[in-house]
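Z., the sequence and structure:
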Amino acid sequence: MVQTQTSPSSTGALAGKFSKEQLQWLDKAKLFARAITPAEVIASDKENVFRRDLFEKACSAEFSFGSLPFPTTYGGAGGDYVSFSLVNEEFGRRCVPIMSSLGVHVLSQEPIYRFGNDEQKSKYLTAASTGKMLAAFGLTEPNAGSDTAAIETTARIDGSGNYVLNGTKTFITSGASAEFYIVMARLIDPADESAARSGSADGIKPRPESTKRSGQITAFIVERNFEGFAIGQKFDMLGMRGYSTCEIVFNDCLVPKENLLGAHGEGRKVALSSLAKGRVTIAAQCVGWAQGALDACLDNLQRHYRDGVITADAGGMAAKLGDLAVQTEAARVLTFQAARLIDAREPSVTVAAMAKTFASDVAMKVSTEAMNVLGMDGLNPDLLIERIFRDAKAGQIYEGTNQIQRMLIARDLLK
């Protein structure tokens, strides 16, 4: 049970929409977020530095955000996904520097809860819940983004029954700072791996069809101190900065057989079941971005609002603001519908895809319009609009592009 703390109250207008416990989680999020100064937010973005201290504070017993939606066994906080979505909306609204890393941290614990054995749960989940271990998710590759079937990273079984991984994962959030990673690789015969890694006479690396057909996508828990593991290129990106985003490289990386997650060939199931929940988290973050941009517009228009009347020069902007408020609230409703389905143990991949797609599109639209309304003021880092604008574009891309989400939705409708 979450303890009530002295914090900005979220009762009142929200009392009929969420439970007392859920609102307590929101109050904790506000307490955490408001303690971070705008200067800290701007510095994390500008310097592209991950705030490990804030992450560990978020996972501490005082807040327990790092294990919020998990049962109390293995250190879970016993909350739900509606509460976690409320936290992520608040963090998105205020551009909390650890927001995305926290979301991926929870995403990466999910498959261990679902597919891990008791030994794996005891070793990784307890440490993850306290922030002692930061988790990351290794799925995306240079030639395999939203298409999990195109994974090229390979795993083979050596003479001792352990696994040897080769390949590269890219754009891994928290990659340069994490202690362990949920990694998807294609389990193949040694002969197939030799063919996949050999070069042709012109130096072009072939991708034999036999390798792609024979390999079973399988999940592993990989620690950063495993032999053959390395941090590759670090990315200085347009948005989503301060999250240690990088490549992770496996060069004959030795993974103990005890770190197989689930059964051979279950990798896609492991990935997709976790990503469905992760997309709800992203949707909540996007709602927060949209609300943050909307708040900045409201603050600006207050100057034109006198005695209940909007001045003539602000009439057009006010009408636009009303439209953006409608879209933001619609994104919020769809997002929390997806979260409530998870809590009811009826998670919908399709509704999650709808929420992620719509909320990220709304975040992009609202932040763009906010920039138009505010003009040069929108470029002021202190208002955070320009950061929201840059981050919102990433929201349309990562954990499955919106184009892919629309295809998933259509595929489900056509069944």
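The longest helix spans residues 267-301. The radius of gyration is 22 Å.

Let me know what you think.
H.
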